[in-house]
Specification:
By secondary structure, the chain is of the alpha+beta class. The chain has helices at residues 12-21, 114-129, 133-138, 141-149, 173-184, 189-198, and strands at residues 24-31, 34-41, 43-47, 50-58, 72-76, 80-83, 96-106, 108-111, 151-157, 160-166. It contains six helices and ten strands; from the N terminus they run αββββββββαααββαα.
């Protein structure tokens, strides 16, 4: 990812929090030299000094067959907002876009053990809707096993992490104040979130 020095994002805690908050990401791999992508919900955890991603494909999605030993890319890419040049002090300016993005690289390892797949599903439920856990546990065992048979789980240890925070760092304080004010009053949730990150309260 192209990251100018001014937009380089190096705060490990913030980056991890961002990945966990905006955890519906895009996984990109290659098959026969052609990129393929799948949009997936991820569990993001840190174990000692490593970030580990967990998710699952529908078994019918043959993306998982392309993983092998190759490196895949997972893109976390929210929020974002259009920035109008009307906020700038000089007329000689053009529009731009503010956004935050994290690129995580690693080799995915498939999870074949039924018990570990069940654990992955239950951890996913607990992460996104813990209150559903009781209903899930009460479902017939055969139904839950059929669900397990219909997915392919995987884990991925992140071996390279690239993070970019483009939030008008190159503008004057007055210009940034105008941008924050405009974005904060927008009806667009993405714009509001960018305003929060610009104010340092995005996490």
């Amino acid at each position: 990812m192209y990251i100018p020095k001014i937009n380089s994002w190096n705060d490990d805690r913030e980056i991890l929090d961002f990945m966990q908050r905006f955890s519906f990401a895009t996984m990109v791999s290659a098959r026969n030299g052609i990129p393929i992508a799948t949009h997936l919900p991820f569990l993001v955890s840190k174990v000692e000094n490593s970030i580990i991603l967990y998710s699952h494909f529908a078994r019918a999605n043959d993306h998982w067959q392309a993983l092998g030993e190759q490196t895949s890319l997972v893109i976390f890419s929210e929020p974002h907002a259009y920035i109008s040049p009307s906020h700038y002090e000089k007329e000689l300016n053009v529009p731009t876009w503010n956004y935050l993005a994290v690129h995580a690289y690693g080799k995915a390892i498939l999870i074949s053990d039924t018990g570990k797949l069940m654990e992955l599903l239950e951890n996913t439920i607990n992460n996104f809707e813990a209150s559903y856990g009781e209903q899930w546990s009460s479902l017939p065992d055969q139904y839950r096993m059929n669900m397990i048979k219909g997915i392919v789980g995987f884990s991925m240890v992140v071996t390279e992490l690239q993070a970019k925070k483009k939030i008008s760092q190159n503008r004057s304080e007055g210009e940034k104040e105008k941008i924050v004010h405009s974005l904060a009053k927008s009806e667009d949730t993405h714009a509001q979130l960018i305003a929060e990150y610009m104010k340092g309260r995005g996490i």
